Amino acid sequence: MKKRTKLVLILILLLIIQFPVFYKFWLERMGGWLIYQDKITPADCILVLGGGRGERVLEGVDLYRKKYAPKIMMTGEFEQMLYGPVYHWALQGQKLAASRGVPKDNVIPILDSKSTYDDATLSKAECLKRNYKTLIVVSEPFHTKRSYYVFKKVYKNSGIKVMIYPVQDSWWTKYNWYQSEKGLIMGEEEYVKFVYYIIKRQI
Question: In this predicted model, what pLDDT tens digit does every residue of 59-97 receive, in sequence order?
């Protein structure tokens, strides 16, 4: 076998061996691109976006306890569990917050939201009505980059400062998202939603 052929084969073998490393490298960067975080300061209100398994609410409650804001807004929509009751994300979040010591009067449920864009437009109206000037928006990591662009567009020229804050101890991270079916689905769906929001001019 010629020296050149051997060298090519060795290089190919090295690439095959290293492929999982490159694969991991790019997947971690894909996951990381979806994550956005502002440096937060005390605000008028914390907005917990609907969805998830309660982590968003608990993060909002944690910020509330740390005196980052005196009020919590919660968005979401009605959902029908299979063979179960109909419930609303915001009202369920309000109950969970109450179980963690947040007075019911300090939680503002927004009931008509069906999307992140609705979250932004409805919360903006609520902020303007209450004369809030600063808002911390809490969501899961994979949802924060799109939330950043949506809220940036909707709140433009409103005079309200918006800070995006991901759940800190989330099940979904840039390092593990591709290692489970649920994580993959959430990551892939988020990229699809990005394209949809661009087409709809909502970001």
Answer: 999 999 999 999 999 999 887 666 667 778 999 999 999
- Is 90 exceeded by the pLDDT of residue 12? no
183: containing domain: 45-199
On whether residue 189 sits in a domain, the answer given is yes
What is the CB neighbour count within 10 angstroms for residue 160? 21
List, for residues 13-25, the tens digit of each pLDDT value: 555 556 566 677 8
SS (H, E, C) 112-178: CCCCHHHHHHHHHHHHHHHCCCEEEEEECHHHHHHHHHHHHHHCCCCCCEEEEEECCCCCCCCCCHH
Average pLDDT, the chain: 90
Residues 175 and 181: beta-carbon distance below 8 Å: no
For residue 98, give both structure tokens. 């109450």
List the CATH number of the domain containing 124: 3.40.50.620
At residue 27, the pLDDT reads: 86
| Residue 32: both structure tokens together | 């990381």
Is the backbone of residue 181 left (phi > 0), alpha (psi -120 to 50) or beta? Answer: alpha
Task: Report the SS3 class of residue 139.
Answer: strand
Report the domain count for the chain.
1
